[in-house]
Amino acid sequence: MISHPHFWFAIPVFNRIALTLSCLDSIRKQSYKDYVIVICDDGSTDNTTAILEEKYPEVRIIQGDGNLWWTGGTNECIRYILDHASPDDFIVTLNNDLELAEDYLQQMLHAVHTKPDSIFMSACYDIKNKGILIEPGRKMNWFIAKDIKINAEKYNARGLAEVTHAPGRGTVFSVEVFRKIGLFDFDKFPHYAADYDLTHRAKRAGYYIFINYDAKLYSHVEETGLTGFRKKKNLSGLLRYLSDIKSPACLRYRWRYAVKNCPPLLLPTFIIFDAIFIVGSYFKSR
């Protein structure tokens, strides 16, 4: 057992054991070995805990009651980590539908030494086509109600580029970030938007946020949130797309996110424009 790990993985899971095993396999292959994995199993019905205890006895497993969603499950992991980590340690928030490049932690270690007191998101690629960068980092433009993708080619998809916020899938925080600003906001954002909300809070608290293009992870894109909600193009499908807790387009959570983070003078136009963009994206998607 590692007595003083440098990186702690916080991974919430609900079923999808095959994806979880692939994710953990990629962590085991890391060239940098100073880590501990903490998983919150939120009421899985596919024997997740028993399988992990057999195949990955080193993993710390926390049991949820099935009502934690992404935010609550991640928070449970972080609470555990904060109780056991050293002040100089780091937390990696991760989803189980992701796999890491073998030098992922090594690249993140270099970044945290280069830019202390910063938060680092990962460069996310499509696992079926590893040449396609699906998340190059973004900068929020509240005036037009859109976060604009960074042109990764400007940086040759290498090194660091500053962003305004970061997703929870593969983002590295010092433990002190959570001790200073608190955990993800479960009450307002149980499943989506909690990651963006927290990183906006961190930025206001003085932390810089970067994408680390050298820290690559690979996404099972078909397993991500929007995919299932865009299959049926009808009124009932649209209503579910705009209201389901599992949908990234759920308007009530997007509006809460705007109220907490958008400059007050831009809030009315942001809410209107954002709703128009979300509805339009539903019908434009294939």
Describe what this molecule looks like in 3D.
- It is a single chain.
- The protein is of the alpha/beta class.
- The chain is 38% helix and 24% strand.
- It folds into two domains: 7-223, Spore Coat Polysaccharide Biosynthesis Protein SpsA, Chain A (Alpha-Beta Complex); 227-284, no CATH class.
- The protein is built from ten helices and twelve strands.
- α2 (48-55) links the parallel β2 and β3 (60-63).
- α9 packs antiparallel against α10 (267-284).
Offer a few descriptive terms.
286 residues; 2 domains; Spore Coat Polysaccharide Biosynthesis Protein SpsA, Chain A; 38% helix; two-stranded antiparallel ribbon
Brief write-up:
By secondary structure, the chain is α/β, with parallel strands linked by helices.
Total helix count? 10
CATH H-level homologous superfamily name of the largest domain: Spore Coat Polysaccharide Biosynthesis Protein SpsA, Chain A
For the record, the count of structural domains works out to: 2
**What is the strand content?**
15-25%
Order of helices and strands: EHEHEHEEHEEEEEEHHEHHHH
By CATH reckoning, the class of the largest domain would read: Alpha Beta
The Rg value, from CA coordinates, equals 18 Å
Give the overall form. globular
Count of individual beta strands: 12
* Helical content band: 25-40%
Determine the CATH topology of the largest domain.
Spore Coat Polysaccharide Biosynthesis Protein SpsA, Chain A
Low-confidence stretches: none
Q: Could you say which structural class the secondary elements and strand pairing correspond to? A: alpha/beta
Do you know the CATH architecture of the largest domain?
A: Alpha-Beta Complex
Distance between the termini: 48 Å
